[in-house]
Protein backbone atom coordinates (compact mmCIF):
# COMPACT_ATOMS: atom_id res chain seq x y z
CA UNK A 1 0.00 0.00 0.00
CA UNK A 2 1.40 3.41 -1.00
CA UNK A 3 1.52 6.44 1.31
CA UNK A 4 -1.20 8.20 -0.70
CA UNK A 5 -3.50 5.18 -0.41
CA UNK A 6 -2.80 4.96 3.32
CA UNK A 7 -3.57 8.65 3.85
CA UNK A 8 -6.72 8.45 1.72
CA UNK A 9 -8.05 5.45 3.63
CA UNK A 10 -7.33 6.91 7.07
CA UNK A 11 -8.10 10.61 6.47
CA UNK A 12 -10.46 11.03 3.52
CA UNK A 13 -12.31 7.78 2.79
CA UNK A 14 -15.97 8.18 3.92
CA UNK A 15 -17.46 5.73 6.38
CA UNK A 16 -21.15 6.49 5.73
CA UNK A 17 -23.29 4.05 3.71
CA UNK A 18 -25.91 6.42 2.28
CA UNK A 19 -24.71 8.02 -1.03
CA UNK A 20 -25.48 11.68 -0.11
CA UNK A 21 -23.95 11.26 3.34
CA UNK A 22 -20.82 9.73 1.79
CA UNK A 23 -20.46 12.66 -0.60
CA UNK A 24 -20.84 15.22 2.20
CA UNK A 25 -18.44 13.35 4.50
CA UNK A 26 -15.82 13.07 1.75
CA UNK A 27 -15.93 16.81 0.97
CA UNK A 28 -15.84 17.67 4.69
CA UNK A 29 -12.81 15.44 5.26
CA UNK A 30 -10.94 17.13 2.40
CA UNK A 31 -11.75 20.65 3.69
CA UNK A 32 -10.82 19.88 7.30
CA UNK A 33 -7.65 18.02 6.29
CA UNK A 34 -6.51 20.95 4.10
CA UNK A 35 -7.32 23.52 6.82
CA UNK A 36 -5.60 21.35 9.42
CA UNK A 37 -2.44 21.19 7.30
CA UNK A 38 -2.48 24.98 6.87
CA UNK A 39 -3.21 25.52 10.56
CA UNK A 40 -0.31 23.26 11.56
CA UNK A 41 2.05 25.26 9.36
CA UNK A 42 0.76 28.52 10.84
CA UNK A 43 1.02 27.15 14.38
CA UNK A 44 4.60 26.07 13.73
CA UNK A 45 5.53 29.55 12.45
CA UNK A 46 3.88 31.26 15.42
CA UNK A 47 5.58 28.89 17.84
CA UNK A 48 9.01 29.69 16.34
CA UNK A 49 8.27 33.42 16.57
CA UNK A 50 7.19 33.11 20.21
CA UNK A 51 10.38 31.40 21.29
CA UNK A 52 12.69 33.47 19.08
CA UNK A 53 11.27 36.93 19.69
CA UNK A 54 8.72 37.87 22.34
CA UNK A 55 5.85 35.94 23.85
CA UNK A 56 4.14 39.21 24.70
CA UNK A 57 3.88 40.13 21.03
CA UNK A 58 2.75 36.75 19.75
CA UNK A 59 1.08 35.27 22.83
CA UNK A 60 -2.56 35.86 21.76
CA UNK A 61 -1.91 34.65 18.25
CA UNK A 62 -0.08 31.59 19.61
CA UNK A 63 -3.04 30.52 21.75
CA UNK A 64 -5.65 31.24 19.08
CA UNK A 65 -3.74 29.39 16.37
CA UNK A 66 -3.20 26.27 18.46
CA UNK A 67 -6.81 26.24 19.71
CA UNK A 68 -8.02 26.44 16.12
CA UNK A 69 -5.61 23.69 15.05
CA UNK A 70 -6.60 21.34 17.85
CA UNK A 71 -10.29 22.05 17.14
CA UNK A 72 -9.84 21.02 13.49
CA UNK A 73 -8.04 17.87 14.58
CA UNK A 74 -10.87 16.98 16.94
CA UNK A 75 -13.44 17.48 14.17
CA UNK A 76 -11.50 15.19 11.84
CA UNK A 77 -11.29 12.49 14.52
CA UNK A 78 -15.01 12.86 15.21
CA UNK A 79 -15.72 12.30 11.50
CA UNK A 80 -13.43 9.26 11.34
CA UNK A 81 -15.30 7.70 14.27
CA UNK A 82 -18.61 7.80 12.36
CA UNK A 83 -19.94 11.15 13.65
CA UNK A 84 -19.54 13.08 10.42
CA UNK A 85 -22.87 14.89 10.72
CA UNK A 86 -22.05 16.16 14.21
CA UNK A 87 -18.55 17.17 13.07
CA UNK A 88 -20.00 19.13 10.13
CA UNK A 89 -22.39 21.06 12.39
CA UNK A 90 -19.60 21.88 14.87
CA UNK A 91 -17.37 22.97 11.97
CA UNK A 92 -20.06 25.34 10.70
CA UNK A 93 -20.45 26.77 14.22
CA UNK A 94 -16.67 27.26 14.45
CA UNK A 95 -16.57 29.13 11.13
CA UNK A 96 -19.57 31.23 12.14
CA UNK A 97 -17.91 32.19 15.46
CA UNK A 98 -14.75 33.25 13.64
CA UNK A 99 -16.72 35.30 11.09
CA UNK A 100 -18.78 37.00 13.81
CA UNK A 101 -15.64 37.80 15.81
CA UNK A 102 -13.88 39.32 12.78
CA UNK A 103 -16.86 41.40 11.65
CA UNK A 104 -17.75 42.66 15.12
CA UNK A 105 -14.12 43.55 15.91
CA UNK A 106 -12.97 45.00 12.59
CA UNK A 107 -16.25 46.11 11.03
CA UNK A 108 -18.75 44.69 8.59
CA UNK A 109 -16.71 46.04 5.64
CA UNK A 110 -13.75 43.77 6.39
CA UNK A 111 -13.09 41.82 3.13
CA UNK A 112 -11.86 38.75 4.98
CA UNK A 113 -15.03 38.68 7.10
CA UNK A 114 -17.26 39.04 4.06
CA UNK A 115 -15.41 36.32 2.17
CA UNK A 116 -15.60 34.07 5.22
CA UNK A 117 -19.37 34.69 5.45
CA UNK A 118 -19.72 33.76 1.76
CA UNK A 119 -17.64 30.64 2.34
CA UNK A 120 -19.93 29.64 5.22
CA UNK A 121 -23.00 29.90 2.95
CA UNK A 122 -21.35 27.82 0.19
CA UNK A 123 -20.05 25.14 2.57
CA UNK A 124 -23.43 24.93 4.34
CA UNK A 125 -25.18 24.32 1.02
CA UNK A 126 -22.70 21.60 0.07
CA UNK A 127 -22.32 19.83 3.41
CA UNK A 128 -25.77 20.29 4.96
CA UNK A 129 -28.00 20.49 1.89
CA UNK A 130 -29.58 23.18 -0.27
CA UNK A 131 -32.18 24.15 2.33
CA UNK A 132 -29.54 24.59 5.04
CA UNK A 133 -27.46 26.70 2.65
CA UNK A 134 -30.47 28.95 2.04
CA UNK A 135 -31.07 29.38 5.79
CA UNK A 136 -27.39 30.19 6.34
CA UNK A 137 -27.57 32.79 3.53
CA UNK A 138 -30.62 34.43 5.12
CA UNK A 139 -28.99 34.34 8.55
CA UNK A 140 -25.70 35.77 7.25
CA UNK A 141 -27.49 38.59 5.44
CA UNK A 142 -29.50 39.41 8.55
CA UNK A 143 -26.37 39.39 10.72
CA UNK A 144 -24.52 41.75 8.35
CA UNK A 145 -27.48 44.16 8.34
CA UNK A 146 -27.67 44.16 12.13
CA UNK A 147 -23.89 44.50 12.49
CA UNK A 148 -23.76 47.42 10.04
CA UNK A 149 -26.60 49.20 11.84
CA UNK A 150 -24.99 48.74 15.28
CA UNK A 151 -21.59 49.86 14.04
CA UNK A 152 -22.92 52.93 12.20
CA UNK A 153 -24.88 54.02 15.29
CA UNK A 154 -21.85 53.54 17.48
CA UNK A 155 -23.59 51.00 19.64
CA UNK A 156 -20.75 48.52 19.01
CA UNK A 157 -17.14 49.70 19.05
CA UNK A 158 -15.13 48.49 16.03
CA UNK A 159 -11.50 48.97 15.14
CA UNK A 160 -11.42 50.51 11.66
CA UNK A 161 -7.77 51.57 11.61
CA UNK A 162 -7.11 48.93 8.99
CA UNK A 163 -8.90 51.18 6.52
CA UNK A 164 -6.06 53.75 6.66
CA UNK A 165 -3.24 51.21 6.75
CA UNK A 166 -1.19 50.46 3.69
CA UNK A 167 -2.03 47.40 1.65
CA UNK A 168 0.09 44.36 2.46
CA UNK A 169 0.67 41.17 0.51
CA UNK A 170 -0.44 39.20 3.55
CA UNK A 171 -3.94 40.65 3.17
CA UNK A 172 -4.13 39.36 -0.39
CA UNK A 173 -2.90 35.96 0.74
CA UNK A 174 -5.79 35.76 3.23
CA UNK A 175 -8.29 36.68 0.53
CA UNK A 176 -6.80 34.15 -1.85
CA UNK A 177 -6.93 31.37 0.75
CA UNK A 178 -10.62 32.00 1.43
CA UNK A 179 -11.40 32.12 -2.30
CA UNK A 180 -9.42 28.92 -2.86
CA UNK A 181 -11.42 27.15 -0.19
CA UNK A 182 -14.67 28.33 -1.80
CA UNK A 183 -13.40 27.18 -5.20
CA UNK A 184 -12.30 23.77 -3.90
CA UNK A 185 -15.63 23.21 -2.13
CA UNK A 186 -17.58 24.16 -5.26
CA UNK A 187 -15.36 21.95 -7.43
CA UNK A 188 -15.75 18.95 -5.15
CA UNK A 189 -19.50 19.40 -5.00
CA UNK A 190 -19.85 19.81 -8.76
CA UNK A 191 -17.59 16.80 -9.35
CA UNK A 192 -19.77 14.60 -7.16
CA UNK A 193 -22.91 15.94 -8.83
CA UNK A 194 -21.43 15.24 -12.28
CA UNK A 195 -20.60 11.69 -11.23
CA UNK A 196 -24.13 11.21 -9.95
CA UNK A 197 -25.51 12.54 -13.23
CA UNK A 198 -23.26 10.19 -15.19
CA UNK A 199 -24.43 7.25 -13.12
CA UNK A 200 -28.03 8.36 -13.59
CA UNK A 201 -27.55 8.65 -17.36
CA UNK A 202 -25.87 5.23 -17.48
CA UNK A 203 -28.72 3.74 -15.46
CA UNK A 204 -31.28 5.44 -17.70
CA UNK A 205 -29.50 4.09 -20.78
CA UNK A 206 -29.38 0.59 -19.30
CA UNK A 207 -33.04 0.88 -18.31
CA UNK A 208 -33.97 1.98 -21.83
CA UNK A 209 -32.06 -0.99 -23.28
CA UNK A 210 -33.80 -3.33 -20.84
CA UNK A 211 -37.16 -1.78 -21.71
CA UNK A 212 -36.52 -2.25 -25.44
CA UNK A 213 -35.45 -5.84 -24.81
CA UNK A 214 -38.57 -6.39 -22.72
CA UNK A 215 -40.75 -4.96 -25.49
CA UNK A 216 -39.16 -7.36 -27.95
CA UNK A 217 -39.73 -10.27 -25.56
CA UNK A 218 -43.35 -9.20 -24.96
CA UNK A 219 -43.93 -8.93 -28.71
CA UNK A 220 -42.42 -12.37 -29.30
CA UNK A 221 -44.39 -13.87 -26.41
CA UNK A 222 -47.60 -12.27 -27.68
CA UNK A 223 -46.94 -13.77 -31.12
CA UNK A 224 -46.35 -17.19 -29.53
CA UNK A 225 -49.59 -16.90 -27.55
CA UNK A 226 -51.51 -15.92 -30.67
CA UNK A 227 -50.04 -18.90 -32.54
CA UNK A 228 -50.88 -21.18 -29.61
CA UNK A 229 -54.44 -19.86 -29.51
CA UNK A 230 -54.74 -20.43 -33.25
CA UNK A 231 -53.54 -24.02 -32.84
CA UNK A 232 -56.05 -24.56 -30.00
CA UNK A 233 -58.87 -23.12 -32.12
CA UNK A 234 -57.92 -25.46 -34.95
CA UNK A 235 -57.91 -28.37 -32.51
CA UNK A 236 -61.35 -27.35 -31.22
CA UNK A 237 -62.55 -27.17 -34.80
CA UNK A 238 -61.20 -30.67 -35.39
CA UNK A 239 -63.00 -31.82 -32.24
CA UNK A 240 -66.25 -30.29 -33.49
CA UNK A 241 -65.82 -31.91 -36.90
CA UNK A 242 -64.99 -35.21 -35.25
CA UNK A 243 -68.10 -34.91 -33.10
CA UNK A 244 -70.35 -34.30 -36.10
CA UNK A 245 -68.80 -37.20 -38.00
CA UNK A 246 -69.13 -39.44 -34.94
CA UNK A 247 -72.80 -38.56 -34.55
CA UNK A 248 -73.48 -39.35 -38.20
CA UNK A 249 -71.45 -42.55 -38.01
CA UNK A 250 -73.31 -43.75 -34.91
CA UNK A 251 -76.60 -43.01 -36.59
CA UNK A 252 -75.57 -44.97 -39.69
CA UNK A 253 -74.32 -48.09 -37.86
CA UNK A 254 -76.95 -48.21 -35.10
CA UNK A 255 -79.79 -49.53 -37.28
CA UNK A 256 -77.79 -52.29 -39.06
CA UNK A 257 -76.30 -53.32 -35.75
CA UNK A 258 -79.74 -53.61 -34.21
CA UNK A 259 -81.02 -55.59 -37.20
CA UNK A 260 -78.14 -58.08 -36.99
CA UNK A 261 -78.66 -58.48 -33.27
CA UNK A 262 -82.40 -59.21 -33.79
CA UNK A 263 -81.59 -61.74 -36.51
CA UNK A 264 -79.29 -63.60 -34.16
CA UNK A 265 -81.93 -63.55 -31.44
CA UNK A 266 -84.41 -65.25 -33.82
CA UNK A 267 -82.04 -68.07 -34.65
CA UNK A 268 -82.40 -71.58 -33.26
CA UNK A 269 -81.69 -71.76 -29.51
CA UNK A 270 -79.39 -74.70 -30.13
CA UNK A 271 -76.91 -72.31 -31.75
CA UNK A 272 -73.18 -72.86 -31.90
CA UNK A 273 -70.63 -71.34 -29.55
CA UNK A 274 -69.49 -68.96 -32.31
CA UNK A 275 -73.02 -67.62 -32.72
CA UNK A 276 -73.32 -67.14 -28.97
CA UNK A 277 -69.99 -65.34 -28.99
CA UNK A 278 -71.14 -63.17 -31.88
CA UNK A 279 -74.31 -62.26 -29.96
CA UNK A 280 -72.26 -61.33 -26.85
CA UNK A 281 -69.93 -59.19 -28.95
CA UNK A 282 -72.84 -57.45 -30.64
CA UNK A 283 -74.38 -56.64 -27.26
CA UNK A 284 -71.05 -55.19 -26.19
CA UNK A 285 -70.92 -53.08 -29.35
CA UNK A 286 -74.48 -51.91 -28.73
CA UNK A 287 -73.39 -50.76 -25.28
CA UNK A 288 -70.52 -48.80 -26.88
CA UNK A 289 -72.86 -47.16 -29.37
CA UNK A 290 -75.36 -46.29 -26.66
CA UNK A 291 -72.61 -44.89 -24.42
CA UNK A 292 -71.19 -42.84 -27.29
CA UNK A 293 -74.62 -41.36 -27.96
CA UNK A 294 -75.00 -40.41 -24.31
CA UNK A 295 -71.54 -38.88 -24.27
CA UNK A 296 -72.32 -36.76 -27.32
CA UNK A 297 -75.48 -35.60 -25.55
CA UNK A 298 -73.40 -34.73 -22.46
CA UNK A 299 -74.82 -37.43 -20.19
CA UNK A 300 -73.55 -40.72 -18.84
CA UNK A 301 -74.80 -43.59 -16.74
CA UNK A 302 -72.84 -44.46 -13.60
CA UNK A 303 -73.45 -47.70 -11.78
CA UNK A 304 -71.76 -50.18 -9.45
CA UNK A 305 -70.07 -52.74 -11.72
CA UNK A 306 -67.67 -55.68 -11.53
CA UNK A 307 -64.18 -54.91 -12.78
CA UNK A 308 -63.39 -58.52 -13.68
CA UNK A 309 -66.60 -58.92 -15.69
CA UNK A 310 -65.87 -55.82 -17.79
CA UNK A 311 -62.25 -56.84 -18.37
CA UNK A 312 -63.18 -60.41 -19.43
CA UNK A 313 -65.77 -59.10 -21.92
CA UNK A 314 -63.24 -56.62 -23.27
CA UNK A 315 -60.54 -59.27 -23.69
CA UNK A 316 -62.91 -61.35 -25.83
CA UNK A 317 -63.29 -58.34 -28.14
CA UNK A 318 -59.54 -57.61 -28.20
CA UNK A 319 -58.53 -61.24 -28.79
CA UNK A 320 -58.78 -61.20 -32.63
CA UNK A 321 -56.67 -58.02 -32.89
CA UNK A 322 -54.06 -59.38 -30.47
CA UNK A 323 -53.93 -62.71 -32.33
CA UNK A 324 -53.40 -60.92 -35.63
CA UNK A 325 -50.31 -59.22 -34.16
CA UNK A 326 -49.24 -62.48 -32.47
CA UNK A 327 -49.50 -60.78 -29.10
CA UNK A 328 -50.61 -62.52 -25.92
CA UNK A 329 -52.48 -60.60 -23.22
CA UNK A 330 -51.52 -62.01 -19.83
CA UNK A 331 -54.37 -61.35 -17.38
CA UNK A 332 -55.17 -63.34 -14.27
CA UNK A 333 -58.57 -62.66 -12.65
CA UNK A 334 -58.20 -61.02 -9.30
CA UNK A 335 -60.49 -60.57 -6.34
CA UNK A 336 -64.07 -59.57 -7.18
CA UNK A 337 -63.41 -55.83 -7.12
CA UNK A 338 -66.36 -53.55 -7.71
CA UNK A 339 -66.19 -49.88 -8.56
CA UNK A 340 -68.76 -47.15 -9.05
CA UNK A 341 -68.77 -45.33 -12.38
CA UNK A 342 -69.57 -45.71 -16.05
CA UNK A 343 -68.67 -49.32 -17.06
CA UNK A 344 -68.49 -48.39 -20.74
CA UNK A 345 -65.94 -45.65 -20.10
CA UNK A 346 -63.96 -48.06 -17.96
CA UNK A 347 -63.91 -50.56 -20.83
CA UNK A 348 -62.95 -47.84 -23.28
CA UNK A 349 -59.97 -46.65 -21.24
CA UNK A 350 -58.69 -50.21 -20.75
CA UNK A 351 -59.26 -50.97 -24.45
CA UNK A 352 -57.24 -47.92 -25.51
CA UNK A 353 -54.35 -48.89 -23.25
CA UNK A 354 -54.37 -52.47 -24.56
CA UNK A 355 -54.59 -51.28 -28.18
CA UNK A 356 -51.56 -49.03 -27.68
CA UNK A 357 -49.65 -51.90 -26.07
CA UNK A 358 -50.47 -54.16 -29.06
CA UNK A 359 -49.35 -51.48 -31.53
CA UNK A 360 -46.09 -51.06 -29.58
CA UNK A 361 -44.95 -54.42 -31.02
CA UNK A 362 -45.50 -53.29 -34.62
CA UNK A 363 -42.24 -53.58 -36.55
CA UNK A 364 -40.44 -55.52 -33.81
CA UNK A 365 -38.91 -59.00 -34.11
CA UNK A 366 -39.59 -60.11 -30.55
CA UNK A 367 -40.15 -63.84 -30.13
CA UNK A 368 -42.50 -63.46 -27.19
CA UNK A 369 -44.94 -60.58 -27.53
CA UNK A 370 -46.71 -60.34 -24.21
CA UNK A 371 -48.82 -57.64 -22.58
CA UNK A 372 -49.16 -57.71 -18.83
CA UNK A 373 -52.48 -56.54 -17.38
CA UNK A 374 -52.68 -56.44 -13.57
CA UNK A 375 -55.31 -55.03 -11.23
CA UNK A 376 -54.82 -54.70 -7.48
CA UNK A 377 -56.22 -52.72 -4.59
CA UNK A 378 -54.20 -50.16 -2.62
CA UNK A 379 -56.07 -48.59 0.34
CA UNK A 380 -59.18 -46.91 -1.13
CA UNK A 381 -57.94 -47.01 -4.74
CA UNK A 382 -57.75 -49.54 -7.52
CA UNK A 383 -54.41 -49.66 -9.39
CA UNK A 384 -54.37 -50.95 -12.98
CA UNK A 385 -51.09 -51.57 -14.86
CA UNK A 386 -50.67 -52.26 -18.58
CA UNK A 387 -47.11 -53.25 -19.53
CA UNK A 388 -45.49 -54.09 -22.86
CA UNK A 389 -41.92 -54.78 -24.03
CA UNK A 390 -42.31 -52.97 -27.33
CA UNK A 391 -40.29 -50.15 -28.92
CA UNK A 392 -40.72 -47.78 -25.97
CA UNK A 393 -41.35 -44.03 -25.90
CA UNK A 394 -38.88 -41.14 -26.02
CA UNK A 395 -38.83 -38.45 -23.34
CA UNK A 396 -40.63 -36.00 -25.63
CA UNK A 397 -43.29 -38.60 -26.44
CA UNK A 398 -43.88 -39.30 -22.74
CA UNK A 399 -44.32 -35.58 -22.12
CA UNK A 400 -46.82 -35.08 -24.97
CA UNK A 401 -48.55 -38.44 -25.22
CA UNK A 402 -51.75 -37.28 -23.47
CA UNK A 403 -52.14 -34.19 -25.68
CA UNK A 404 -55.20 -34.25 -27.99
CA UNK A 405 -54.36 -35.14 -31.63
CA UNK A 406 -50.79 -36.10 -30.77
CA UNK A 407 -49.96 -39.49 -32.24
CA UNK A 408 -46.91 -41.65 -32.86
CA UNK A 409 -48.72 -43.85 -35.40
CA UNK A 410 -48.53 -41.72 -38.54
CA UNK A 411 -47.65 -44.64 -40.75
CA UNK A 412 -50.88 -46.64 -40.37
CA UNK A 413 -53.13 -43.65 -41.15
CA UNK A 414 -55.76 -44.82 -38.63
CA UNK A 415 -54.78 -43.03 -35.44
CA UNK A 416 -56.37 -39.65 -34.69
CA UNK A 417 -54.30 -39.03 -31.56
CA UNK A 418 -57.28 -38.76 -29.21
CA UNK A 419 -57.24 -42.21 -27.57
CA UNK A 420 -54.92 -41.45 -24.65
CA UNK A 421 -56.35 -37.93 -24.28
CA UNK A 422 -59.76 -39.54 -23.86
CA UNK A 423 -58.30 -42.08 -21.40
CA UNK A 424 -56.83 -39.29 -19.26
CA UNK A 425 -60.17 -37.48 -19.29
CA UNK A 426 -62.08 -40.58 -18.20
CA UNK A 427 -59.55 -41.40 -15.46
CA UNK A 428 -59.38 -37.90 -13.97
CA UNK A 429 -62.91 -36.59 -14.48
CA UNK A 430 -65.10 -39.68 -14.33
CA UNK A 431 -63.20 -41.83 -11.83
CA UNK A 432 -61.32 -39.12 -9.89
CA UNK A 433 -58.00 -40.88 -10.43
CA UNK A 434 -54.66 -40.35 -12.14
CA UNK A 435 -52.60 -41.89 -14.95
CA UNK A 436 -48.83 -42.02 -15.41
CA UNK A 437 -46.46 -43.50 -17.99
CA UNK A 438 -42.88 -44.74 -17.72
CA UNK A 439 -40.94 -46.02 -20.68
CA UNK A 440 -37.48 -47.03 -21.87
CA UNK A 441 -36.07 -49.20 -24.64
CA UNK A 442 -34.70 -51.66 -22.11
CA UNK A 443 -37.77 -52.05 -19.85
CA UNK A 444 -40.60 -51.29 -22.25
CA UNK A 445 -43.63 -49.10 -21.47
CA UNK A 446 -45.91 -49.19 -18.45
CA UNK A 447 -49.15 -47.26 -17.98
CA UNK A 448 -50.35 -47.07 -14.38
CA UNK A 449 -53.94 -46.01 -13.73
CA UNK A 450 -55.16 -45.25 -10.22
CA UNK A 451 -58.95 -45.14 -9.73
CA UNK A 452 -60.88 -44.22 -6.62
CA UNK A 453 -63.21 -46.89 -5.24
CA UNK A 454 -66.20 -44.58 -5.27
CA UNK A 455 -69.57 -45.68 -3.92
CA UNK A 456 -73.00 -44.42 -4.83
CA UNK A 457 -74.32 -41.98 -2.28
CA UNK A 458 -77.09 -43.36 -0.05
CA UNK A 459 -80.45 -41.58 -0.04
Secondary-structure map:
Blueprint: H1 3-12, H2 19-52, H3 55-80, H4 84-106, H5 111-127, H6 130-152, H7 169-265, H8 273-297, E1 303-306, H9 307-324, E2 328-331, E3 338-341, H10 343-359, E4 370-378, E5 381-388, H11 395-400, H12 419-430, E6 434-440, E7 444-452
Helix pairs in contact: 2-3, 2-7, 3-4, 4-5, 5-6, 5-7, 7-8, 9-10, 10-12
Could you explain the architecture of this structure?
The protein is of the alpha+beta class and 459 residues long. 67% of the residues lie in helices and 10% in strands. It has a 5-stranded mixed β-sheet, covered by helices on one side. A two-stranded antiparallel sheet has the order 1-3. Helix 5 (111-127) packs antiparallel against helix 6 (130-152) and helix 5 packs parallel to helix 7 (169-265). It is rod-shaped, with a radius of gyration of 50 Å.
Q: Low-confidence parts lasting 5 or more residues at pLDDT below 50?
A: none
Task: Measure the end-to-end span.
Answer: 91 Å
Strand element count: 7
Shape: rod-shaped
Largest sheet: 5 strands, mixed
Summed up:
With 459 residues, the chain is α+β, with helices and mostly antiparallel strands. The protein has helices at residues 3-12, 19-52, 55-80, 84-106, 111-127, 130-152, 169-265, 273-297, 307-324, 343-359, 395-400, 419-430, and strands spanning 303-306, 328-331, 338-341, 370-378, 381-388, 434-440, 444-452. It has twelve helices and seven strands.
Q: What attributes does this structure have?
A:
459 residues, single chain, 5-stranded mixed beta sheet, 12 helices, two-stranded antiparallel sheet, alpha+beta
Amino acid sequence: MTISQYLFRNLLSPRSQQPDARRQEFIFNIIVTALLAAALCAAAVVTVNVFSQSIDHFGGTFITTWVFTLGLGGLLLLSRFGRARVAIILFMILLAVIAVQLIMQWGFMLPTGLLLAAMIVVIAGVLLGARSGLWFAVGTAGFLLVASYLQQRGIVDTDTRWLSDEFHVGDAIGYVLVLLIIGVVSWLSNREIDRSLQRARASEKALAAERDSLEVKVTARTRELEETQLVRLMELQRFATFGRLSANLLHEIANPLTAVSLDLELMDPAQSALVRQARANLKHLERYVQAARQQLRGSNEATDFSVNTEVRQLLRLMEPRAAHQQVKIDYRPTAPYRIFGDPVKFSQLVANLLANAIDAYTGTNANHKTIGLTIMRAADTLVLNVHDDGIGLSTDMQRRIFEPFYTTKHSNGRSLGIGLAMVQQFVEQDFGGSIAVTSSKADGTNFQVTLKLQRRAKH
